[in-house]
Specification:
This protein is α+β, with helices and mostly antiparallel strands. About 40% of the residues lie in helices and about 20% in strands. It folds into 2 domains: about 5-45, Arc Repressor Mutant, subunit A (Orthogonal Bundle); about 65-140, Lrp/AsnC effector binding domain/regulation of amino acid metabolism (RAM) domain (Alpha-Beta Plaits), CATH 3.30.70.920. A 4-stranded antiparallel sheet has the order 2-3-1-4. Strand 2 (about 95-100) and strand 3 form a beta hairpin.
């Protein structure tokens, strides 16, 4: 695990907010010269702390106004059941995130679709059709007052 100081933390926060920030602006925020800042960023990349740069997509602009988190319980703990479920959700464009978790269910999904009708179709035709799915609990997102990447 990499040891991070306050300057590294400042760089990481700035890059999470805007991965396209110029090195000059990033250096200014971190209180470094541009060359020292670039060396820091490259060291964070080499160490694996920074694993990539991504565009944050706006679900509303993409016509995916209905966002929900879904807990999914499986009826079987066999490896094959988990592999089949994971393969199915990887192929489902509605699933933005899939996490295998501990607790009273096996998976937590973030689903983005156009509206309630599209969600119902996903719930019934995709999740409900999977053989080892035993429980589905939906939590509909009404607002996101804090998002780490905004």
């Amino acid at each position: 695990m990499a040891e991070l100081d306050q300057i590294d933390e400042t760089i990481l926060i700035a890059l999470q907010r805007n991965a396209r920030i110029s090195n000059v602006d990033l250096a200014d925020r971190a209180g470094l010269s541009p060359s020292a800042c670039l060396r820091r960023v490259q060291a964070l990349e080499r160490s694996g702390v920074i694993s990539g740069y991504h565009a944050k997509l706006n679900p509303r602009a993409l016509g995916r106004d209905f966002v929900s988190y879904i807990s999914v319980g499986l009826s079987s703990q066999r490896k094959a059941a988990h592999e089949a479920f994971e393969a199915a959700v990887k192929d489902a464009p509605q699933v933005a995130e899939c996490h295998n978790v501990t607790g009273s269910f096996e998976y937590l999904l973030r689903v983005e679709v156009a509206d309630l009708d599209a969600y119902k179709e996903f719930h019934t035709q995709i999740l409900g059709a999977l053989p080892d799915v035993a429980s589905i609990t939906s939590l509909v997102v009404m607002a996101s007052p804090k998002d780490r990447f905004v």
